[in-house]
Amino acid sequence: MGFAQGGISYKTYYVKGDLPADYRQLFLDRIRLHAFTPLTVDSEEDITYGWTPIEDLLETNFQTPAVFLNQYIVLSLRLDRWAIPPALLKAAVRRAEQEFREETKRDYLSRTERGEILERERNELKKQALPAVRAIDMYWNIDTGQLRFGSASRSVNEQFIDMFERTFSLELIPDSPYISAVQCGLDGELIGQLADLTPANLVGDN
Given 26, 160, 162, 203, which is the most exposed site by the fewest CB atoms within 10 A? Predict the structure, then answer.
């Protein structure tokens, strides 16, 4: 869920690198290049992800007002995935293999034949279903370099980092007490002391 829809789970990053002088047009062009592309039945991958405007996950024609909001760059990362129930796919494949054996009057199928049946049945089930859809919002403050992404999922964040760095050619640094201290301009000696801190046990031993 995105921030615009009331999501409160998020991960914070800092963007490392300098913005180019003409970043608005350059970023718009690169966002359009990495815009979301829908899955199809014939897609080789079972997952796809790319950018959409926050206000409309069906739109991929980005305009400046939809992306640049005051000092922020705002986008949604849309992820679509085929989610065919394993039990249903297994049952469909078992039935198809049985029909194939009856038609060919053979007791065994080769590995190639099994693979072809599996792929055919998976595609048939895709035709009867819609992919699972997620859209996760990103708010990037270009003045401070701080970025918030509306998901704490490790796998989703890995996909987000991949898409962000390919789009903007800038590095994302996950937030931490040390990184926050550096960003806040904390004294160097105090920053060094962070390495000696240990977590406090606020629960106690039972």
Answer: 203
- Contact (CB, 8 A) for 137 and 150: yes
Instruction: List the structure tokens of 154.
Output: 């490790």
Q: pLDDT (tens digit, 9 = 90+) per residue, 37-76?
A: 998 888 778 889 999 999 898 888 888 788 999 999 999 9
Distances (CA, A) of 206 to 52, 65, 201: 49, 56, 12
Q: Which amino acid is at 73?
A: I
Q: Which residues of 84-117 are buried (b: 16+ CB within 10 A; e: fewer)?
A: beeeeeeebbeebbeeeeeeeeeeeeeeeeeeeb
pTM equals 0.72
Q: How far is CA 114 from CA 43, 96, 97, 109, 110, in A?
A: 20, 10, 7, 6, 6
Collapsing DSSP to helix, strand or coil, 174 comes out as strand
